[in-house]
Amino acid sequence: MTADKVENKSEERTKSKRRSHSRHRSHSKGRSGTLDKIFDQIILWLFVGMFVLMPVSYGGTLVWSYSITEVLTAVALLLWGGRLWLNHSHRFFSTPAVWGVLLILAYGFFEYIKSPIEYSARRDTLQLLLYVCLFFLFVNNLKHRKYAKIFALAVISVGTMISIYAVAQFMTGSTSILGVEQPDVYVHRASGTYICPNHLAGFLEMTIPLALALTLAGRLEQYQKILVGFASLVLLAGIAVTVSRAGYVASLCGVALILVTLFNSHKYRIPALAAAALLIVAAAWFLLSKPHAETRFSELMTTTQLDEGRGAIYKSSLEMASKTSLFGRGSGTYASQIHSYLTDKTQDDPYFAHSDYLQLWIEWGLVGVALLAALLIAAGIDVFKIWQYVRRKGESFNPQDSTRSALFLGVAGAILAILIHSAVDFNMHIPANAMLAVVLFAFLLSCVRLYKDSCWIKQSSANRIAVTTFIVLFSFILVWDAVHTSHIAYLVKASEAEGISNKEAQKLLDQAVKLDERNWNTAMEAGRRMLTVGMYSEDPEERDWALVHAIGYYSMAIRYNPYHYRLYGGMAGALTLQGRADDAIPYADKMLTLRPDGHDSNAVYGFCALYRGDYDLAVKHLERSIHLRNEGNDFAKEWYEIAAQRQGEQKKFE
């Protein structure tokens, strides 16, 4: 065989090997691409499931719905972790705003560590962790336009169904919310599947811009445009019947952003004008035909609104914020520490500051506010660049429709609306609303990839291991919390079952408290239950037994939250009924110190003083309690009559 023939055969073998390797790589890439699509679709439907479940379960405030969401998020995280190892070409999304999200998560852990109320801080930090996980899942997995479109249509569908339910509530005058009676304070207002109408408005104001943008500028099939257009009208009706003033203003701003932008495009000028005219006519008709809606706006100008209710809470919260350190008081501290700053104009316990920014200032300090501002500025810069790119490329509204551009515009309007509403309400403390805002924010940032190739980080062994470690850790934390909180909630619910004896209930409550001793809230509920038994039981042995357990529960709660005035009131009441009025007075005094202008504080102090034999002091504080709140203050009224009678008898004797 000649040298030339040998060389030719060698070249043929080399080419054959290359073709074989090429086919293998192509086959591997195809298999990897198929797996990627499967993972994307599963994660997408997990997201859809969460955003169907949460809004229809009182905004995700129920333990079971929130726990299911935590488990679904953990499953999605593990799927993401799996694809990292199956597809090494998968990249990580990275922009300054993304790093800002990570920085906020790190600062949230810092605030958890420094918080003096561990359980409350833990709840807030775990919620933050859930939202950050959803953010990273979305920007790193649901990149394709069709996935964003499916998600948006799912959210619009849920919002439409809730709006239909809300309109039915409003038209029929129903006060039932999925079988639960609506609070009297929300009379003549619809809340759909939420408890508070303002929070339904918060959800819908993020949904309306999506539906409107897709209707006017989305690349949809004709029947889809008709359905989404109908949904837009229903969503507008839904937010109208909430009679939420801030919801109206926020929705108007979000919708205005879309209409003004479309008006600048010649092709969409007429549809934008028609939509604006329809909106103005509908709003005018509703406000003029529904006196209660008009009254809600006129109330803003009254002195009562500024000095009482939410206005009084704002004043107290601002005073609290002014006395807060640079790094804040710690996560979860607002609800327990605000009472010392409340005036006699506020008698109900505020759990939130009715302003997400103000509460952030109080709990995270000015440093936390600065971090949020920096994140929003970084995101705003990215959004501006995205918009410039879209307009320059002509992909937005001219010459033809673009679903991606319509979604981008709709999401921008939604984010603007919730940012405005959050200034005067606490939508970001309602899980369903916070989750939607986070995912929409993630979509907005993910559009950076349209103009910037450097927003992706390639995988390496080091970053793959690091990300996988955090995925496994966070998944474990979310599943653990879901199981843990569900177990406690189940025990507490079982203790309230009809027909269960007090001792059986106490055993269940004891199990719940022991599962998480730092959970002062469960201990307080257990103490309240036993205190009620001790106060009204006709059996002396059961009475003493219940009071001993009440004291134990309240002691545990005070140990892990020494700031909540009601814990000291419960302890004072239990000690007084046990015949230890002298021991009860220091707790009653502490309650009064933490909540000096509260009707409950004065009532409990007067009750303890009565049992101690100091009738003048008892009458003084019980009178003060009745003055602070007359309606519904039966406890103070009943004991005031006894105290006044004893005082009169004492004076006669003297």
Detail the poorly predicted runs: 21-29, 395-401
Shape: globular
- Name the beta content range: under 5%
| β-strand number | 4
- Give the H and E element order: HHEHHHEEHHHHHHHHHHHEHHHHHHHHH
The major beta sheet can be summarized as:
2 strands, antiparallel
Structural class per helix/strand content?
A: mainly alpha
Widest β-sheet, arrangement of strands: 1-4
Q: What is the gyration radius calculated from CA atoms?
A: 30 Å
Percent helix, as a range, is: over 70%
Chain-averaged pLDDT: 87
Report, as a whole number of angstroms, the end-to-end distance: 137 Å
**What is the overall number of helices?**
25
Number of domains: 3
What topology emerges from the helices and strands here?
Blueprint: H1 3-56, H2 63-86, E1 92-93, H3 96-114, H4 118-141, H5 145-172, E2 176-177, E3 180-181, H6 197-217, H7 222-242, H8 245-263, H9 269-289, H10 291-298, H11 303-307, H12 309-322, H13 334-337, H14 356-393, H15 403-421, H16 431-446, E4 456-457, H17 461-495, H18 502-515, H19 520-536, H20 540-560, H21 565-577, H22 581-594, H23 599-612, H24 615-628, H25 634-653
Antiparallel strand pairs: 1-4, 2-3
Could you please describe the fold and organization of this structure?
By secondary structure, the protein is mostly helical. The protein has three domains: 31-101 and 134-307 and 375-472, no CATH class; 496-556, no CATH class; 563-654, Serine Threonine Protein Phosphatase 5, Tetratricopeptide repeat. It is 76% helix and 1% strand. The protein has 25 helices and four strands. The chain has helices at residues 3-56, 63-86, 96-114, 118-141, 145-172, 197-217, 222-242, 245-263, 269-289, 291-298, 303-307, 309-322, 334-337, 356-393, 403-421, 431-446, 461-495, 502-515, 520-536, 540-560, 565-577, 581-594, 599-612, 615-628, 634-653, and strands at residues 92-93, 176-177, 180-181, 456-457. The strands form two sheets. A two-stranded antiparallel ribbon has the order 1-4. A hairpin with a 2-residue loop joins strand 2 and strand 3 (180-181). Helix 9 crosses helix 10, helix 21 runs antiparallel to helix 22 and helix 22 packs antiparallel against helix 23 (599-612). The radius of gyration is 30 Å and the shape is globular. The termini are far apart. Residues 21-29 and 395-401 have low confidence and may be disordered.
